């Protein structure tokens, strides 16, 4: 049975306050949502790639994690957690451990789409019983908002700045969720802390309690990098979903399923407008860039609908 | 260096089993209580490429870890190597070279860059075809070099090799007999031109 | 050994610090007060609250206090005043005021 | 009774690993260490070990998975060479700094470029400051013995550091030689079980590992790590003594060969030491007071002990199978020379970089070094401090 919000709020908090993430940070909302799906009686080992989440949540001598936590490096949380999971399997087999543990790796889009892709791919291919959660905020925020392969086209970042002749990042974003689907692991889903959180709770629960590897790609706004006012976190998420910039779907044992279809698909402009990183697109001479983005969103959305047989 | 140490150099082509033969010889010597070394010329083996392997056999612990430059014996697993490789380089005069060839030893001397020591030949191809139905020269060559060096008694060698084959061919026991036959025939048929 | 503690504070000798920087007390970040970061402050109007709980999961600082499934207040020790709860509330239960 | 066997260096290492029966092995193949994970995965396939074998997609992930597994509480091993070790580099430091007792055979091979699969020590020498304990092995026997001892050294409560056990690629790894093995039961008894207090899977007390560590605390963590390395020296000797009781084979920080009255000596690591011993014997027969120091423990560096062992010599040659490209001698040379700084009437010390990329080291090469030392003693003059031995001029 899927976890509803009424029940979810009763679960013990596994990620405490007192961490040093920015005010209004989406990453901690993502983390809290995923961890809420853990059954209270289950223990967990959590890994994090170097990134905002890690440096802010585990800053000696403080940790915001109520479960066991390990940070190793930027590009290797997949391998690190797979090692811990292998240790668990053998120690359990040998009777040295009795409790049930779940294994969850968190990485930003830098540690997941880019530098950590190999380690993630290896861990998933090997079939470890773990969940890899990408909190995708579309740039290397920890080091000061540099472009990643998850950064949307035309976004202004510090290594893809919008200038007089180049209007921000020049490439469309990599579709990592589909790359992960190509691993044919038991569960892959794209989600966001959206609406009443039913989508992310249900997907986190499935990911954690499906035997074998699972991958969650979670849309995670960054007020600092995207340049919007912190209170607007949930609104930005809503716009990403309603414009079909960030479709919610899952691939369970190879079966593609759309989780949410907007009643009325909003134009991409709605998602772009509140964010300072797209400000340059709203100059009159750049109207065609928005059109280009719209075309790409439409193309990807249509292809997804086809895959999901919608 | 220990006076009793015997140094052997093997010349073959990748895929012919020269390396395996050197290891089997080491194994046979080991089983009689000797100290042994068996090692290939280090590198990736490619089918057909000339390769070198080495043996040291001694009554004392072997400490030296260099290649062998002045061998007591040389084994040539493929006769065609003679034209390209200086197989007798550094070979001691009082030693011997053992060549896989149907020819008589003296017929090959002209190919050995003025080498003056003993030459032995054994027709490993015929023996292999007769006993194994395929061309695997390494077992006959092992029999021949064991005979020439006389590092162990005949029965000791056969017993040790039978055990090795049983271990090595655990999954295909049908080839053990053929290999033993090949070993024994080569042991008997190797012929020498001693100096 | 269940209550092994990580020494806090800035003046811990190398002999006393923990090996490899391991932290023994899970969740001890609660002892670090991030409430000081606030320039704006959400104020919960209990009487208007419908207990819909939508403010709870949106809080990045785990600062919506809940007991038995009901909201009971805001943890100002850790609330950074981002205002996400204020915007997320469908019933406008929160005031968002300047921190005094 | 010891088991008389003949094994290649890689087989010896894999056999030690089988007898230790670690909880997790995560490894990626690279010549010349490839056989180690190959043999080991066969042990797993045959059920002769209980180990979880994680066939990772790179050495970086191998070491990363080892860190995860060791942090989780498992006894963990891996093996690598050369570029594989280089790819692990970042995580070597993390393993050591996180105080994780991982044991790793390093089958020494030259680092690229140009690519070369043959033996030298440029791989492990480059990792000398990564915080790993480094043991070097002359032959298959020493590699086997070192690995078994390494488990105890690494996991000792006063140490808690990872250990590299180095041996020469191909020269030892692929050479079949005689070896004496311990019965598996004895190995198991010797290595015991990993004693754990703080680990990820401790249900009593969850922990956080690998924090961000800022200026107020980082230095203290490093100082504590340095102390563990200091402690390792004593622990290595204690465990060697225990191992000697079990096997009769004696190990120290280094081996002194015919050093009692030696006037000249070379310091060398790994398999070249065996060849050099032959040369020492020959020189001794000719009345030359030659000796040899074979360094077993390079990290921690036995600075005081080496000073004591070398101080009365007239001339010392330090042979490095790796160049540090400092333009001032090899890495072992630099440290030995520094170690002798305080000695009054210290011996002349010269550097020989040799055997790079698998250049064979012959008896004559070693003789040349001793000849040079004799020349230094006789003339009282050092013609050349920094030398390359066996290179084509």
TrEMBL record, chain A:
Top-level taxon of origin: Bacteria
UniProt-listed Pfam families: TPP_enzyme_C (PF02775)
GO MF terms held by the record: oxidoreductase activity; thiamine pyrophosphate binding
Keyword list, A-Z: Oxidoreductase, Pyruvate
InterPro entries: PorB-like (IPR051479), THDP-binding (IPR029061), TPP_enzyme_TPP-bd (IPR011766)
Domain Thiamine pyrophosphate enzyme TPP-binding per the UniProt entry, residue ranges: 50-218
Gene3D superfamilies, sorted: 3.40.50.970
Matches recorded under PANTHER family: PYRUVATE SYNTHASE SUBUNIT PORB (PTHR42897)
Protein name: Pyruvate ferredoxin oxidoreductase
Species of origin: Thermohalobacter berrensis
From TrEMBL, chain B:
Pfam family membership, one: POR
Gene3D superfamilies per record: Pyruvate-ferredoxin oxidoreductase, PFOR, domain III
Name by which UniProt lists this protein: Pyruvate synthase
Superkingdom, taxonomy of origin: Bacteria
Keywords: Oxidoreductase, Pyruvate
NCBIfam families: PorC_KorC
Domain Pyruvate/ketoisovalerate oxidoreductase catalytic intervals: 14-187
Record InterPro entries: Oxidoreductase_gamma_subunit, PorC_KorC, Pyrv/ketoisovalerate_OxRed_cat, Pyrv_flavodox_OxRed_cen
From TrEMBL, chain C:
Domain of life (superkingdom): Bacteria
Keyword Iron attached: yes
Domain (4Fe-4S ferredoxin-type) ranges: 40-68, 69-99
InterPro entries referenced in this protein's UniProt entry, alphabetically: 4Fe4S_Fe-S-bd, 4Fe4S_Fe_S_CS, PorD_KorD
One function term, GO molecular function aspect: oxidoreductase activity, acting on the aldehyde or oxo group of donors, iron-sulfur protein as acceptor
Alphabetical list of PROSITE patterns matching this protein: 4FE4S_FER_1, 4FE4S_FER_2
Keyword set includes Lipid biosynthesis: no
Gene3D superfamilies assigned: 3.30.70.20
Alphabetical UniProt keywords: 4Fe-4S, Iron, Iron-sulfur, Metal-binding, Repeat
Pfam families with a match to the protein in the record: Fer4, Fer4_6
Cofactor(s) listed in the protein's UniProt record: [4Fe-4S] cluster
PANTHER family per record: PYRUVATE SYNTHASE SUBUNIT PORD
Protein name as it appears in the record: Ferredoxin
Organism: Thermohalobacter berrensis
From TrEMBL, chain D:
Limits of the Pyruvate:ferredoxin oxidoreductase core domain: 262-366
GO biological process terms on file: carboxylic acid metabolic process; response to oxidative stress
Domain of life where this protein originates: Bacteria
Keywords: Oxidoreductase, Pyruvate
Gene3D superfamilies: 3.40.50.920, 3.40.50.970
GO molecular function: oxidoreductase activity, acting on the aldehyde or oxo group of donors
Annotated ranges, domain Pyruvate flavodoxin/ferredoxin oxidoreductase pyrimidine binding: 16-239
SUPFAM superfamilies, A to Z: Thiamin diphosphate-binding fold (THDP-binding) (SSF52518), TK C-terminal domain-like (SSF52922)
Family annotation (PANTHER family): PYRUVATE-FLAVODOXIN OXIDOREDUCTASE-RELATED
Family under the similarity heading: Belongs to the pyruvate:ferredoxin/flavodoxin oxidoreductase family.
Protein name: Pyruvate ferredoxin oxidoreductase
Organism annotation: Thermohalobacter berrensis
């Amino acid at each position: 049975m899927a976890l509803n919000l009424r029940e979810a709020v009763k679960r013990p908090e596994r990620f405490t306050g007192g961490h040093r993430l920015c005010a209004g940070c989406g990453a901690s909302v993502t983390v809290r949502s995923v961890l809420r799906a853990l059954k209270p009686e289950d223990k967990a080992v959590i890994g994090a790639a170097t990134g905002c989440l890690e440096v802010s949540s585990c800053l000696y001598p403080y940790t915001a994690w109520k479960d066991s936590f390990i940070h190793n490096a930027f590009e290797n949380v997949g391998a690190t957690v797979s090692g811990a999971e292998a240790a668990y399997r053998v120690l359990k087999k040998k009777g040295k451990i009795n409790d049930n543990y779940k294994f969850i790796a968190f990485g930003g889009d830098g540690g997941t789409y880019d530098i950590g892709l190999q380690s993630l791919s290896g861990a998933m291919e090997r079939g470890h019983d773990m969940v890899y959660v990408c909190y995708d905020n579309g740039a290397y925020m920890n080091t000061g908002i540099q472009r990643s392969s998850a950064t949307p086209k035309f976004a202004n970042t510090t290594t893809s700045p919008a200038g007089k002749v180049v209007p921000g990042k020049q490439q469309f974003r990599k579709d990592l969720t589909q790359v992960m689907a190509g691993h044919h692991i038991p569960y892959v889903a794209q989600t966001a802390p959206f609406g009443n959180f039913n989508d992310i709770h249900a997907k986190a629960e499935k990911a954690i309690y499906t035997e074998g590897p699972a991958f969650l790609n979670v849309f995670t706004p960054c007020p600092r990098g995207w340049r919007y006012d912190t209170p607007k976190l949930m609104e930005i998420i809503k716009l990403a979903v309603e414009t079909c910039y960030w479709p919610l779907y899952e691939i369970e044992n190879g079966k593609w399923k759309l989780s949410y279809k907007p009643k009325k698909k909003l134009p991409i402009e709605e998602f772009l407008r509140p964010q300072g990183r797209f400000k340059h697109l709203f100059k009159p001479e750049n109207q065609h860039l928005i059109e280009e983005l719209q075309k790409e969103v439409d193309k990807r959305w249509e292809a997804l609908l086809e895959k999901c047989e919608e | 260096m220990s006076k009793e140490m015997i140094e052997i150099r093997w010349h073959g082509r990748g895929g012919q089993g020269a390396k395996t033969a050197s290891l089997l010889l080491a194994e046979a010597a080991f089983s009689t209580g000797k100290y042994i070394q068996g090692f290939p010329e280090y590198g990736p083996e490619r089918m057909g490429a000339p390769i070198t392997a080495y043996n040291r056999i001694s009554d004392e612990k072997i400490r030296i870890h260099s290649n062998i430059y002045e061998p007591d014996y040389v084994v040539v697993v493929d006769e065609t190597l003679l034209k390209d490789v200086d197989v007798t380089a550094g070979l001691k005069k009082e030693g011997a070279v053992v060549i896989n060839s149907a020819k008589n030893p003296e017929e090959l001397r002209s190919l050995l860059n003025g080498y003056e020591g003993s030459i032995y030949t054994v027709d490993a191809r015929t023996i292999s075809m007769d006993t194994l139905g395929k061309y695997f020269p390494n077992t006959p060559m092992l029999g021949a070099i064991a005979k020439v060096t006389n590092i162990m008694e005949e029965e000791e060698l056969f017993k040790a090799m039978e055990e090795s084959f049983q271990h090595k061919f655990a999954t295909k026991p049908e080839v053990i007999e053929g290999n033993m036959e090949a070993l024994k025939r080569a042991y008997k048929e190797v012929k020498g031109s001693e100096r | 050994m269940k209550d092994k503690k990580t020494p806090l504070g800035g003046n811990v000798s190398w002999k006393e610090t923990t090996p490899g920087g391991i932290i023994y007390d899970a969740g001890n970040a609660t002892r670090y007060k991030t409430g000081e970061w606030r320039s704006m402050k959400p104020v919960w109007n209990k009487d208007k609250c419908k207990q819909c709980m939508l403010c709870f999961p949106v809080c990045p600082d785990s600062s919506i206090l809940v007991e038995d499934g009901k909201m009971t207040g805001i943890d100002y020790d850790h609330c950074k005043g981002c205002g996400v709860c204020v915007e997320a509330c469908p019933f406008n239960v929160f005031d968002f005021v300047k921190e005094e | 009774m010891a088991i008389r066997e003949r094994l290649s260096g890689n087989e010896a290492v894999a056999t030690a690993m089988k007898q230790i029966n670690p909880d997790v092995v995560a490894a990626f193949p690279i010549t010349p260490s490839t056989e180690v994970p190959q043999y080991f995965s066969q042990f797993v396939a045959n059920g002769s070990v209980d180990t979880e074998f994680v066939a990772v997609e790179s050495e970086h992930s191998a070491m990363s998975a080892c860190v995860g597994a060791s942090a989780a509480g498992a006894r963990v091993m891996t093996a690598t060479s050369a570029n594989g070790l280089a790819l692990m580099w970042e995580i070597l430091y993390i393993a050591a700094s996180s105080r994780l007792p991982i044991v790793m055979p390093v089958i020494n091979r030259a680092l690229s470029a140009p690519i070369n699969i043959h033996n030298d020590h440029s791989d492990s020498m480059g990792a000398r400051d990564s915080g790993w304990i480094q043991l070097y092995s002359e032959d298959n026997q020493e590699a086997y013995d070192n690995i078994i001892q390494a488990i105890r050294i690494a996991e000792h409560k006063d140490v808690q550091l990872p250990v590299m056990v180095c041996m020469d690629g191909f020269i030892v790894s692929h050479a079949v030689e005689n070896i004496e093995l311990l019965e598996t039961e004895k190995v198991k008894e010797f290595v015991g079980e990993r004693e754990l207090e703080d680990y990820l899977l401790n249900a009593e007390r969850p922990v956080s590992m690998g924090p961000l560590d800022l200026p107020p605390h980082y230095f203290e963590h490093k100082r504590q790590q340095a102390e563990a390395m200091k402690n390792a020296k004593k622990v290595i000797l204690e465990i060697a003594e225990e191992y000697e009781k079990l096997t009769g084979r004696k190990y120290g920080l280094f081996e002194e060969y015919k050093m009692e009255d030696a006037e000249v000596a070379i310091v060398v690591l790994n398999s070249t030491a065996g060849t050099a011993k032959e040369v020492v014997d020959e020189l001794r027969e000719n009345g030359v007071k030659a000796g040899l120091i074979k360094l077993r423990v390079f990290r921690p560096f036995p600075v005081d002990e080496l000073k004591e062992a070398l101080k009365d010599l007239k001339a010392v040659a330090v042979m490095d199978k790796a160049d540090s490209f400092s333009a001032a001698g090899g890495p072992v040379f630099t440290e030995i020379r520094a170690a002798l700084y305080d000695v009054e009437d210290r011996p002349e010390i010269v550097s020989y970089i040799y055997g790079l990329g698998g250049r064979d080291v012959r008896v004559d090469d070693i003789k040349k070094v001793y000849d040079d030392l004799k020349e230094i003693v006789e003339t009282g003059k050092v013609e050349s401090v920094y030398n390359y031995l066996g290179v084509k001029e």
